[in-house]
């Protein structure tokens, strides 16, 4: 039986492992961190396309169970005027379809619990340092080496190791690096803001100097995010600046607006604020060798404005597994996978970058940009090409 080595056990890694199992292919996950579930303060959105992809591997239900929905998006200008409301693309009443909002750590835990239930092994503390293809009597094999001195051998290696992927550079040492977009993303949670927000709705606030999105969870807590211009944070210690500094800076940017955004931010406790950098990776020229391939953020990364990162990674993992099922030779499977995915994901990256530019320039005020997005940029369109995508297993 073919065996795949999956590098990184994040969202993409767990989904890929479950999809490979459905395709009859064994796999093992190698996670660099001791426990995983990093970026615990951030939240994200899984849209209808991501949920439908999870349905292919019977993993949709636990994600829906641990998340909450939004049916529509409301737009507010910097003066507080309501600019309109519309359904979120892909939303179908009563189906549980997107978008679903949950913490990144929750999605990680849900998917890994499901993978473990299916007997998929995860090896923690395995930071990839190298990989080479060797020829054996049975054909080509790939041998991965890890920082702790251990090794692992398989028929192929799948790099699901994120934005700053080691696998990507092993495949192509000249591969482009992620680009910092010039924006910081700040998010937080509060129960103390005396602000009326409709349920099942993302309220998108286009302030004069900052963009804020927020939604109310079923328990009444307000979840919010903001995109603001700033210098790149130290990747090793992105939260080095005190949360109160972020709160006061963001509240100051919002103070002159006639919206509830400043009040929401000021009502958020220090320990409930987290900041990060926004990156994108427009195009990676080489996705694979004969035995190694990248997917998710390791292959393509959109600025967070379209909020499709998780859904794109989920789609990637399932399409790759399908291709490996249909093409037993890894290289042929990788070629088929790239042909099916490259155009779509690069279109998402470009669209999200355009939305980020419009928000940063203020030109999105009152004229919602496409594509559909939430979580850090806004669920503001009805593009069927994006959320209507379905995988025929």
Can you give keywords for this protein?
single chain, FAD/NAD(P)-binding domain, 393 residues, 30% helix, 5-stranded parallel beta sheet, alpha/beta
Overall description:
This protein is an alpha/beta fold and 393 residues long. The protein has one domain: FAD/NAD(P)-binding domain (3-Layer(bba) Sandwich), CATH 3.50.50. It is built from 10 helices and 18 strands. The chain has a 7-stranded mixed sheet. Strands 8-2-1-12-18 form a 5-stranded parallel sheet. It has a 3-stranded antiparallel sheet with strand order 3-7-4. A hairpin with a 4-residue loop joins β10 and β11. It is elongated, with a radius of gyration of 21 Å. About 5% of the residues have low confidence.
Give the SSE map:
Layout: E1 3-7, H1 11-22, E2 26-30, E3 43-46, H2 48-56, H3 60-65, E4 68-69, E5 72-76, E6 82-87, E7 100-103, H4 104-117, E8 121-123, E9 128-136, E10 139-146, E11 151-154, E12 156-159, H5 166-171, E13 179-190, E14 201-206, E15 211-216, E16 222-229, H6 243-254, H7 261-266, E17 273-280, E18 292-294, H8 309-326, H9 330-361, H10 384-387
Parallel strand pairs: 1-2, 1-12, 2-8, 5-14, 12-18
Antiparallel strand pairs: 3-7, 4-7, 5-6, 9-10, 10-11, 13-16, 13-17, 14-15, 15-16
């Amino acid at each position: 039986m073919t065996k795949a080595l999956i590098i990184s056990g994040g969202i993409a890694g767990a989904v890929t492992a479950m999809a490979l199992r459905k395709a009859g292919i064994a796999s093992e996950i190698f996670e660099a961190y001791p426990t995983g579930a990093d970026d615990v303060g951030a939240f994200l959105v899984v849209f209808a396309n991501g949920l439908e992809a999870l349905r292919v591997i019977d993993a949709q239900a636990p994600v829906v169970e641990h998340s909450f929905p939004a049916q529509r998006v409301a737009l507010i200008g910097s003066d507080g005027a309501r600019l309109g409301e519309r359904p979120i693309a892909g939303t179908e009443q009563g189906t549980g379809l997107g978008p679903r909002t949950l913490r990144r750590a929750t999605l990680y835990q849900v998917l890994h619990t499901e993978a473990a239930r299916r007997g998929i092994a995860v090896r923690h503390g395995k930071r990839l340092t190298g990989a080479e293809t060797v020829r054996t009597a049975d054909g080509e094999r790939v041998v991965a080496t890890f920082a702790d001195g251990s090794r692992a051998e398989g028929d192929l290696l799948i790099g699901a190791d994120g934005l700053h992927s080691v696998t990507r550079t092993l495949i192509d040492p000249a591969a482009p690096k992620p680009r910092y977009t010039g924006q910081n993303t700040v998010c937080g949670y509060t129960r103390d803001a005396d602000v009326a927000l409709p349920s099942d709705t993302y309220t998108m606030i286009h302030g004069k100097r900052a963009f804020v999105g927020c939604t109310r969870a079923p328990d009444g807590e307000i979840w919010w995010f903001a995109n603001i211009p700033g210098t790149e944070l130290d990747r090793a210690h992105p939260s080095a600046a005190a949360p109160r500094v972020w709160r006061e800076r963001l509240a100051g940017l919002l103070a002159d607006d006639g919206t509830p955004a400043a009040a929401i931010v000021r009502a958020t406790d220090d320990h409930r604020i987290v900041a990060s950098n926004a990156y994108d990776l427009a195009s990676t020229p080489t996705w694979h060798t004969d035995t190694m391939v990248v997917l998710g953020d390791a292959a393509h990364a959109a600025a967070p404005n379209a909020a499709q990162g998780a859904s794109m990674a989920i789609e990637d993992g399932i399409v790759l597994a399908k291709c490996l099922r249909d093409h037993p030779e890894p290289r042929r499977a990788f070629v088929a996978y790239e042909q099916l995915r490259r155009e779509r994901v690069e279109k998402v990256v470009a669209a999200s970058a355009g939305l980020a530019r419009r928000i940063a320039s203020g030109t999105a005020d009152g004229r919602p940009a496409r594509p559909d997005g939430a979580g850090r940029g806004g669920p503001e369109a009805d593009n069927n090409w994006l959320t209507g995508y379905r995988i025929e297993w």
